[in-house]
Queue: 4 jobs
Job 1
Amino acid sequence: AQADIAVIGMAVMGRNLAMNIAEKGFKVAVFNRSPARTDEAIKEAGDLAGNMIACHTIEELIAALKPPRALLLMVKAGAAVDETIDQLKPHLSQGDIIIDAGNANYRDSVAHDKALGAEGFQFLGVGVSGGEEGARHGPSIMVGGSPKAYERVKDVLNAIAARYEGASCCGYMGPAGAGHFVKTLHNGIEYADMQMIAEAYGLMRSGLGMTPAAIADVFEGWTKGPLASYLTEISVQALRSVDPTTSKPLVDVILDSAGQKGTGRWSAIEALDLGVPASAIAAAVEARGLSSMRSLRQAVNGALGDAERAPIGSATPEIIADIEKTLLTGKILAYAQGFDVLAAGSRQFDWNLPLAEIAKIWRAGCIIRSRMLDSMSKAYSATPAPESLILDPDFAGELKAALPSARKILGLAVANGHPVPALTSAVNYLQQLRTSRATVDLVQAQRDIFGAHGFERIDQPGAHHGPWHTGAE
Ligand code: 6PG
C-alpha cells in the first residue's frame, strides 16, 4: 500500500482535488463508481498521473491505501454519500477515516460521525469552497471531526489549500458537523453577497439607465476599494461578456431564474432555529425562490402590469458612489449576520468555533474571498471578541459613514419601483438594532389583550396587565 489518501468521485470537483493532491507530491488513489470516469481522470492528469493510482474496484482501492486509510468522498450531497459509505464500510478496518468533502448538511455529518464511530471508524465532515478552480489550485477548507482523524490528513489538506500571504486557508473548526456548518454559512453569506451585487447592478441598469459594459467599468473600480472581492471581479467578467449568437450582452440572454442546491436555505433555517436574525441571507434565498416562480411572476405581471421602474437619477459619480456605499453597508451587515449565526451555533452545540480563524481561512480560495474578510479576522482577534461585527470600532465607523448614502439610495429605489430585498433587509436590520425605542410595545399590548401574556413596564418591576380600554367607559 502506498497511497496517502483516496479521492472517491471523479466528477470535476473530485478530479481537480485529486490533481491538486498529486501536484503537492502526495500519492492519491482515485476511484469512481463507473470505472471509465477514473480512466478519464488519469488521462486528464497528464504528468500528475505519476502520483495517482487508478482503482477500478473497491478492493483495489482498499489495497492501495496506507493504514489507517483516509478516504475522501467528493460525491453529491445526500443519498449518494450514504450509498458510498455503505459500499465502503464492509471493506474498512478499524480506525479508517471517511471524509465527506461535499456540501453536506451538518446534521448528516453529525449522524455519520456517530454511526461510523460506533463501528470503530473515524469521520471528518469537511467544507471545501472555491469551485472547480479552487479545487484544482487551492480551496478554503473547513474541517470538522476528531482531532486525531484530522492529524492523519492534516498535511495533505493544508498542502492543497489556498494561501493568504503564505498562510494555509485550511482550518480545524471543531467536532463533526462544525466543518459543514461553517461551510453552510459561507454559502449563506455567498448568496447574500451575490444578491446584493445583483441589486446594485439593477439600480444602475434600470435606475440610472447604464449599459452592462458601463456597469462593468464601475464594478472594476470597486475591485480597488473596500468592495474588493472575487464576486465583484467575476461580476465585471459577467457584464463584459457578449453573446456570440445575438451580439447582446450575455447577461441579457440568461433566463432570470436562479437555481439553488440547499446551502443558502439551510443557513436561513439554522438562523431561524437558533433565533438569530439573518434577514439579508433569507432575503437572498427568497429572491432566488421568487425568481424561479416563473408562471406566478407572469400571472402577477399580467394582473398588475409590469413594475413601472422609474429612473432614480442620472449616472453621476456622486450617485454611483452612493450605490457603492449602499452595497458596502449591506455587505458588512450580511457578513455580520452570518457570523452571528456561527457564534450562536457554536454556543448551542458547544463547538467553540474559531471566528477569527474562519475569517482568516475565507481570505483566499473560497467564493466569498474579499478584502473585507481580512478586517473581519482582525475584528474577531480582539479580546474580548466583539458581540457583533457591527460593534467593532472600524466596522461601526464604516457603517456610520455609509448609512446616509444607503438610506438615500434605498429610499429612491423603493419610491421608484426597484426591488432591493436583500439590501433593504440588511439596512432595516441595522435601523431596528439601533433604535432606542422599538414599536413592539404595541405588540406586547396586543398580546396582553388577547392572551393575557403580560408585559414589563419601563418604570416598575414585575409582570403587568392592562388596564385596557373596554369600550364601555
Ligand atoms: C463554493 C460554492 C459551491 C457551490 C454551492 C452553491 O463555496 O465553492 O459555494 O459550494 O457553488 O453549491 O450552489 P448553489 O448556488 O447552486 O446553491
Job 2
Amino acid sequence: MPEDNPINEIDSPKFEEGLLRKIAEHPCYDRKAQHKYGRIHLAVAPSCNIQCNFCVREFDCVNESRPGVTSKVLTPQEALEKTRQIITDYPFIKVVGIAGPGDPLANDETFETFELIKKEFPELTLCMSTNGLLLPEKLEDILRVGVSTLTVTINAIDPEIQAKIVDHIMYHGKIYRGVEGAEIQIKNQLEGVKAAVEADLVVKVNTVLIPGINDKHIIEIARKLYELRVYIMNIMPLINQGAFANLEPPTAEERKTIQQACEPYVLQMRHCRQCRADAYGLLGQDMSQMSEERRKLIKIQTKEDIEKARTSLKENGKQNA
Ligand code: CLF
Ligand code: SF4
C-alpha cells in the first residue's frame, strides 16, 4: 500500500457519466450539492436484525439517523404518495433514501417501496443505508430495484472490538453473541461492500466514533476502505444512550484529528446532519420539522426560482440563436 498519500497514487473509483451526475446531485456524497439538492427519507423499515449497544430501539437507527428521534412508519404505498407530493412541491429533491427506522435490508417493504418509486420517478437517485449483515444475500435485490448509492455502517473490522459495540445479531433464525456474532457481521459487511463496489454502486461507509472502544482502530477501517475502493467515509460522533449511556462522546477536536488521519485513505464526509429516518428537504433544513407556513414559503421560492431559470434559459437561447 502506498505510504504517503495513497489517494493521489491510486486511480480513484471511476464512474460512468450517469453516476457522476448522481454523485454531483447527492447532498451527502458531494459537499457542494448540499445547499442545492435535497433528499427525502422514507421510514418504511421498522425491524432490525442486530442490537448495537448505543441503540434504543424505540428510536431511529443511530447508525445513520439522529439518536433519540422516532419516525412514523409508512407503508410502501403511503411512501409513494408522500414522495409524489413532496417531489411536485420541491423539485430540488433528487434523492430518495431509506435509512430506517430499523435496518432497510431486514424489511421487505424497502424493496417494495423502491420498486414503486423507480416505476414512477425513474430519474431520482435511490439511496439506502444498512448495517450490512444481509448485504451479500440482498445485493441482487438492491441492484434490481435500482439503488445506486449505498451506505454500510462499519464500526470495527476487528471482531474483538466489534463484540464490544454490538450485543448480538439475529442471522438466519439464530442469535449470535460476542465475537461469534461479530465475525459473521464483519465478514458479510466486507464481502458485501466488495461486491457492491464491483457492481458499480457508489459506496459510503458510516463509522460511529466511540472513544475508548474504536477510536484507535478507525484508521485500520479507513485502510480497508481504501483497499475496497469505497467512495467516501462518514465518521459520526457517538451519542451516548442505551448500554453506552455512561460513555463520553468524542469532542469535535478528537473527531477532526481522526478524520484527518483517515483522509489520505478515503474521502471524508464532514457535513453529515445525522438526519431523521423521515427527514426531507436540504440537509441543513429538515422540512419534516418545519411549520406549514415555512414549508409554503420554500414552495413559493422554489417555484419562483424555476420560473427565473426558465426565463433565463429562454433569453440565453435567443441570444445564442
Ligand atoms: Fe439519506 Fe444517508 Fe442516503 Fe444521505 S442521509 S440514506 S446517504 S440520502 Fe446524509 Fe443524513 Fe448524514 Fe445520512 S446527512 S445522516 S449521511
Ligand atoms: Fe439500532 Fe441501527 Fe444498530 Fe439496528 S443497526 S441496532 S437500528 S443502531
Job 3
Amino acid sequence: IKLFADGAVLEEMISAYKEGVVKGFTTNPSLMKKAGITDYVSFAKEVITHIPDLPISFEVFTDNFDQMIREAEEIASWGDNVYVKIPITNSYGELSIPLIKDLSKKAVKLNVTAILTLEQVQQVVDAFAPGTHNIVSVFAGRIADTGIDPIPTMKKAAEICHQKPNTELLWASSRELLNIFQAEECNCDIITCTPDILRKLSNVGKDLTQLSLETVQMFSKDSKDLG
Ligand code: E4P
C-alpha cells in the first residue's frame, strides 16, 4: 500500500516529502482553511515547486459545473503530478458524473472525493475514460463515524476499482494507525493519513509491556505536575 500525507501545512508537507515516508499528498478546502491559507492558487503553486514529482491532489472550489470544468483544467495545468479532486456531487447534491466523463475524456487525472457508497464507486469507475489514471477516494473514516464497519465496503470498492486499469482506491479520512493495516487487508492501493497519524508509525512493533510502563510513567509525571 502507498502512504499519502493528508494536510495543507507547507512545512509538514515538505518534511514528509524529504523524509521519503509518503508517496503522495492530498489536500482539501477544509484542511486549507484549518492551515490558515487565504490564497489557494499561490499556496498550491508553491507546494508544487517543492513537490514536483509525487502525486498531489488539489480540489476544485466552485459549485457550478461549468465553472468547475474550467477550474479543473486550470488545476491540471499546474503540473504533471497534479490530480484534480472532484467531489462526487456538488453541494446541492447534483451528481458530478457528467463532469467526470468530460474531464476524463480530456485525459485530466482525477481524484474523485467524498465517496461513501458502493453505488457511487461503480458510477465513478464507469465514468473514467479508458487509458486514464485516476484515484477513487472512499471516506472509510466517515463511514466508521456512523457506526458501520467500513471494511466490507472497502473490500468491494477495491474489486470494483480494479476492474478498470490505472484506477486506484484510496482509503480516506483515516482515524488511526490501525487503518493502514486495514486498508492493506482490503486491497486499497493508497491510504492518506494526517501528520498526527504518520507520527505514530514509530509505534509499529513496539513492546506493549514497555508501552504500559510508559503510560504509567506519563500518569505519574502528570500527577506530580498537579501539585
Ligand atoms: C482525503 O483526501 C480527504 O482530504 C481526507 O482524508 C478527509 O478526511 P476527513 O473525512 O477526516 O475530513
Job 4
Amino acid sequence: LKYSEEQAKRKQLYNQIQETKGNIRVFCRCRPLSREESSTGCATVVDFDAAKDGDLGVLTGGSNKRTFKFDRVYTPKDGQVDVFADASPLVVSVLDGYNVCIFAYGQTGTGKTFTMEGPEHNRGVNYRTLEQLFSVARERSDTFTYNLSVSVLEVYNEQIRDLLATSPASKKLEIKQTSEGSHHVPGIVEAKVDNINDVWSVLQAGSNARAVGSNNVNEHSSRSHCILCIMVKTKNLMNGECMKSKLWLVDLAGSERLAKTDAQGERLKEAQNINKSLSALGDVIYALATKSSHIPYRNSKLTHLLQDSLGGDSKTLMFVQISPSEHDLSETLSSLNFATRVRGVELGHARKQI
Ligand code: ADP
C-alpha cells in the first residue's frame, strides 16, 4: 500500500510538471567564488534575489540586468543535499520503468564534476542516486525485485570508450539497434551492482581508467563527456511482469569556446567535436521541448547513444553550471542562453505573441 500511495503521489507530481513544461527540466547551479577570485577582489555578476522563484539575475554591465528563468536556481550556499532533494523523485522514477537522463552542462571549472561526482566527503548526484535506488529497492522488496548494473563510458572526439573494459576494445565501439528498436553498444561491460560498496569500486575503476593515456587528466576530462549508465531490470512479484529501464548521468565536456588563436591541430578537432555534440544535444532537447516532429538524434554519438532515454515518456534534467565571476560573464551568458533555448521557452514566447 505504501508503495502504491507513493507511486500515485509521484505520478501526480509528474503530471503537474508535464502539464506546464513536459518532461524537461533545467536547474541552474552557481559555484562559489574561488579563494583566488575572492582574494583578488573579483566582482560577482549574479544576483539571487528571486532565486526561490527560479529567477536568476545577471548584471551585464553598467546598470543592465538580465533575468533568466529556470525550474530551480541554486546559490553557492546550496549544498549537495539540497540539489539531490530536487533530483531524487526523478531518479527514483527509473524504478517505476521510466528512462531518465541527467546532464551537467557548462564552462570548465563551474562545478559539473562537483555536482555529478562530488568529492569523497561530499558526494554528488551519481553516488546519491545509486544509494537512493538501493534504499527504495529495499523498501519495495516485498513487491519487486530489482537488478541493477552499471556501465561507465566516455565519448571523446566522437568515439565511445568503455571505462570498465579491462583490455582495450579490439574494434571501435559502435551503437547498434536491436530488433525491438532499442539502442545499445555491443561488447561494453555492464557491471552488476548489489550494494553501494560495489558501486564505489566500479566508479573508482571508471575514474582510474579515464586517466590512462592522457597527459593531463583534468584537461582530458574537460574535453570528453563522462557517462554513467544505470540499467534496471524490474520484476513485479505480484504478477510476474518484467521491465527494463535506464538512467544516464552525464558530465558533459566543457562548453567554453576556444580562443581562435588556440585552435589548431588536435585542439581544433576536439573543439569541433565538442561543439558538434553539445549543439546536437541542445537541438534534440529543444526539438523535444517544442514537440517537433523530427528529433535529430543521429547528429552526434552522444544523442544517438542516449536516444532511448531522450523523448517519449523519458525524463530529462539538465544542470546548467555557472561561475559568479565577472571574468566569466560572456561564457556564463552563453551557457544561460543555451539552457534557456533548451527549455523551449523562446518558442513559447513567440507563440504567445502570435
Ligand atoms: P567542472 O567539472 O565544471 O570543470 P569542477 O567540478 O571541477 O568543475 O569544479 C571546479 C572547482 O570549483 C572545484 O575545485 C570544485 O570543488 C569547486 N566547486 C564547484 N562547485 C562548487 C560548489 N557548489 N561548492 C563548492 N565548491 C564548488
